[in-house]
Write a structure and sequence with these properties.
Blueprint lengths: L1 E2 L1 H8 L3 H9 L4 E3 H9 L4 H13 L3 E3 L3 H18 L3 H12 L3 E4 L2 H4 L6 E4 L3
Parallel strand pairs: 1-2, 1-4, 2-3, 4-5
Helix pairs in contact: 1-2, 5-6
Length: about 120
C-alpha cells in the first residue's frame, strides 16, 4: 500500500487508528514526494530526526521519482489542475501509485478522486 503524507501526519498527531493501520501492514510504501513533504514540515532538527527514524523503524520503502512518474504527473496536472485544483505534489503521489500498480490510502480523497485509473482507499481518522 502507498501511504499519502496525511496518514503519517495523523500518526504524528497521535491518531491510534492511523498508527494501527501502519503497524498491521507488512508492505509499506511512500512516494519520494511524501517523504520530502514530511521532512519539509519538520519544525526543528529533532522533529526531522523523528521523521527519518519513523520511516526507518516502520520499514517504509521510498519509491523514487522516475521519468514515467514525472510524465504521468504532468498529464494529471494538465488534465485536472484547472477543473479540480490538482496540485503538483498530489499529481506526483497519484502517478507514483498508478505507475507502481498500488493502492493509495489517504484521508484527502477529494484531492485524488479525479484520477480515474488510481486505486484509492479512503482513511477516516
Amino acid at each position: 500500500m502507498l501511504y499519502d503524507t496525511d496518514i503519517l501526519i495523523w500518526v504524528q498527531r497521535g491518531n491510534s487508528k492511523a498508527a494501527k493501520l501502519i503497524e498491521e501492514d507488512e508492505d509499506k510504501f511512500l512516494s519520494i514526494q511524501s517523504y520530502m513533504e514530511l521532512l519539509q514540515g519538520a519544525k526543528n532538527k529533532l522533529h526531522h530526526k523523528y521523521v527519518k527514524d519513523f520511516i526507518t523503524d516502520f520499514s517504509f520503502a521510498i519509491l523514487p521519482f522516475t521519468e514515467n512518474i514525472g510524465h504521468r504527473a504532468l498529464i494529471y496536472v494538465e488534465e485536472y489542475a484547472l477543473a479540480s485544483s490538482m496540485r503538483a505534489g498530489d499529481a506526483i503521489i497519484s502517478a507514483t501509485a498508478v505507475e507502481n500498480n498500488m493502492t493509495l490510502i489517504s484521508s484527502n480523497v477529494k484531492h485524488f478522486k479525479v484520477v480515474k485509473e488510481l486505486q484509492l482507499k479512503a482513511f477516516k481518522p
